[in-house]
Every structure is written in C-alpha cells, then in structure tokens.
C-alpha cells in the first residue's frame, strides 16, 4: 500500500484514498536511461500521479527524501556440491605430486649408477630372444629398478662405462749425420751404388747433409771405411764411403743409382771385376729415356750419358769433376758444350745426324755400342 498524494492517508486496495477517494497511481520505478552516467548519486526525480478531475493539484510542499548510496551485495555462497568437488581436485593434485616425487627419488641415478634401462620387445629374429628381450608376441616387461648402491645384481642397472683414451706420443727422430748405419762391404756380395766418398769425417758429414737437402740421398744409404771393407776401392786406407746395397744385379741397383747424385755409379764387389764399367743405360728401354737437347740441361741421365761417353766409350766430355780445393763443384749431370760435342762425334761415328742432341735413336746406338761389352 502507498500513501495518497493528496492527504497522506492510506489508499484502498492500491487504487483510491480511503479519506478523500482520490485515485492513487501505482508507484513508478525510476529507471536511468543514460548509459554513460557518472559515478555518484543522481538527482532524485519526483513522480506525481496525473490529475483526475478539476480539483487536483500537485503537492509541492512535500519534502524530498535524501538519496541513499546503494549497498554492495554480498558474494553468493557457492553450493555445497561445488565446494566438495574443488576439495577433491586439490586433494588429487596433492596425491599426484607426492607420488611423482617418490618415483623420481626411486629412479634417479645415485652415486654413479645408471638410470633404468628399457627392455625392447623381441624383433622376431631366428634363434630366440636375446638377453633383455621377450619372446615374440609376449608383452614387454620393464627392467627392474635396483635400489641405490646395489651393484652386480641381475636387476641392477649397468654401470657407466668410461671411453678409453688413446695417448699419441710423438717423438723426434734425429737424422743420422753419417747418412745411415755403418755396414762393411764383403767381397763378391753383389753390386753396390757408390754415392760419395770423403777423406775425413767433417767433410763426409757435410756431404751427407748436402745430399739430404738436395733429395739425392738413397733411402737405404749406409757408410763404411775402405780399410775395413773388401779391396774394391782405389784408396783402401782412410776413405769414408757412402753407398747403397749390395744388390743381386745391376737392374736391382738402378733405382738407388737414379735416386743418387749425378756423379754416383754402380760397381761390383768382386775385386777381380771391379774395373768393369756398369751403367743403368743397358737395362733401360731407350724409348723411355729423356731427350737431352739443350746446353745447361741437368739431370741424373745427363750424368749417365757423360759416364757412358767418357768412361765407357772413351769420348772426351771435358773436365766435369769437382775440385773442392778450387771451389769448383764440378759439372756432373750438366749438359755442357763439351758433352754436346762428344755426342756429335759419337753420332757421326755411328752414321747418325750430328745434331749434338740425344734422342731415342742416339740412346739406342749408345746401348748397342756399349752394353754388349758388359
């Protein structure tokens, strides 16, 4: 029930005043239609009932009640079922966490032990399942977990293996200043390559160093003193000799001869035939020998040519020997003008064009002139 706007008396059933009979309007709920109203109490709005009849007038003298701030509503209390479900979820998460921590402590490696080893299922290879595998079709069983500190049990994890460390020790091998080991030459033992000779050890070691630097020191070089070897040398008293061998044949000795300096040569170890001339020209194929065409050309085959012409066929090739006292290193292995002139004379004597150049035809004629006498 509401009060009558005219006399303040109670209304009759919410429609007419019980004192004066004036119609009473139903109370109207104030609605704020402004969407962006500011925060704070709004100005009160007085709603009056519309007049019915000519004797109605609004009562302007009624006091306007002070606006009151709205009170916040208390949060709704959750239903009992929701609170119970939340408590169960929290309890389940706590149980899972405790179980996970316990499992981790059980399977973690302790004191160098390995972790759990998974056992694969059998691949069906003929011969039955191997160690740690199951039969075909059987479920895979997890590897048992050994308690910390248990070693050697069938169910314990394999110990960690340490990779072997290989230590490479590098050693510096000092080069023999004598060119190789000492080995005295026995008589009639075959053929040797006489590489070099000197009268004293300082000169000998200097020669060895020079040959090594030039790359003309044979791989199997040795040294000896003539006084302790077979009498196949001109001086048998105090000469140091660098040599390679002995070899069974001249052909066997040629690789060492061709890797030696240009003035080296092959000789026999038999004192009775020590003066026999020997050359790698004879076992060689003439078509495989290098052409010698230019003055100043150098090589080991130039040295072989000079020895064949000078020592084998008695052609004058000029003075090519070294003279250490005069500082002359010699011209062995250098195609000098005197050597070219000797080639021209040989060519003219054997029906060849006297070009002074050595080709395959000249090499073949040199073989025919010399090798049949060896």
With strands numbered from the N-terminus, the spatial order across the biggest sheet is: 4-5-3-6
Strand content: 5-15%
Q: Decide which structural class fits the backbone.
A: alpha+beta
CATH class of the domain at 286-373: Mainly Alpha
Element order, helices and strands?
Answer: EEHEHEEHEHHH
The tally of helices reads 6
Share in helix: 10-25%
Largest sheet, in brief, is: 4 strands, antiparallel
Beta strand count: 6
Low-pLDDT ranges: 28-62, 110-156
The shape, in one word, is elongated
- CATH superfamily of the domain at 286-373, by name, is PGBD-like superfamily/PGBD
Question: Based on the structure given, which CATH architecture of the domain at 286-373 is correct?
Answer: Orthogonal Bundle
CATH topology of the domain at 286-373: Muramoyl-pentapeptide Carboxypeptidase, domain 1
Q: Could you give the distance between the termini?
A: 157 Å
What key phrases describe this protein's structure?
four-stranded antiparallel β-sheet; Muramoyl-pentapeptide Carboxypeptidase, domain 1; two-stranded antiparallel ribbon; 374 residues
What's the layout of helices and strands?
Layout: E1 11-12, E2 16-17, H1 80-107, E3 191-198, H2 201-214, E4 221-225, E5 240-247, H3 250-258, E6 265-268, H4 300-312, H5 337-349, H6 360-370
Antiparallel strand pairs: 1-2, 3-5, 3-6, 4-5
């Amino acid at each position: 029930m509401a009060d009558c706007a005219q006399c303040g008396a109670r209304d009759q059933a919410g429609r007419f005043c019980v004192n004066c009979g004036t119609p009473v309007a139903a109370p109207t709920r104030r609605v704020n239609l402004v969407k962006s109203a500011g925060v704070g109490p709004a100005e009160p709005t007085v709603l009056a009932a519309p007049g019915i009849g000519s004797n109605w007038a609004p009562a302007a003298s009624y006091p306007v009640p002070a606006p009151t701030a709205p009170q916040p509503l208390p949060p709704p209390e959750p239903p009992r079922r929701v609170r119970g479900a939340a408590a169960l979820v929290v309890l389940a998460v706590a149980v899972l966490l405790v179980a996970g921590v316990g499992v981790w402590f059980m399977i973690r490696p302790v004191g160098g032990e390995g972790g759990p080893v998974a056992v694969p299922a059998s691949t069906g290879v003929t011969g039955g399942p191997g160690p740690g595998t199951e039969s075909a079709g059987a479920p895979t069983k997890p590897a048992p977990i050994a308690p910390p500190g248990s070693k050697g049990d069938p169910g314990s994890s394999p110990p960690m293996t340490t990779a072997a460390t290989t230590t490479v020790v590098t050693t510096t091998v000092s080069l023999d200043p004598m060119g190789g080991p000492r080995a005295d030459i026995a008589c009639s033992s075959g053929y040797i390559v006489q590489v070099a000779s000197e009268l004293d050890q300082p000169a000998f070691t200097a020669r060895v160093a020079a040959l090594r630097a030039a790359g003309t020191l044979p791989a199997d070089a040795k040294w000896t003193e003539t006084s302790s070897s077979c009498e196949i040398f001109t001086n048998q008293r105090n000469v140091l000799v660098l040599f390679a061998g002995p070899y069974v044949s001249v052909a066997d000795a040629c690789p060492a001869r061709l890797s030696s300096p240009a003035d080296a040569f092959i000789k026999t170890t038999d004192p009775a035939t020590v003066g026999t001339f020997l050359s790698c020209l004879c076992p060689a194929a003439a078509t495989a020998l290098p052409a010698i065409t230019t003055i100043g050309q150098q090589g080991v085959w130039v040295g072989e040519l000079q020895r064949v012409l000078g020592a084998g066929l008695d052609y004058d090739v000029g003075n090519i020997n070294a003279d250490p006292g005069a500082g002359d290193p010699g011209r062995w292995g250098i195609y000098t003008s005197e050597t070219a002139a000797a080639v021209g004379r040989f060519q003219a004597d054997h029906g060849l064009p006297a070009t002074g150049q050595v080709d395959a035809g000249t090499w073949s004629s040199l073989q025919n002139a010399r090798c049949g006498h060896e």
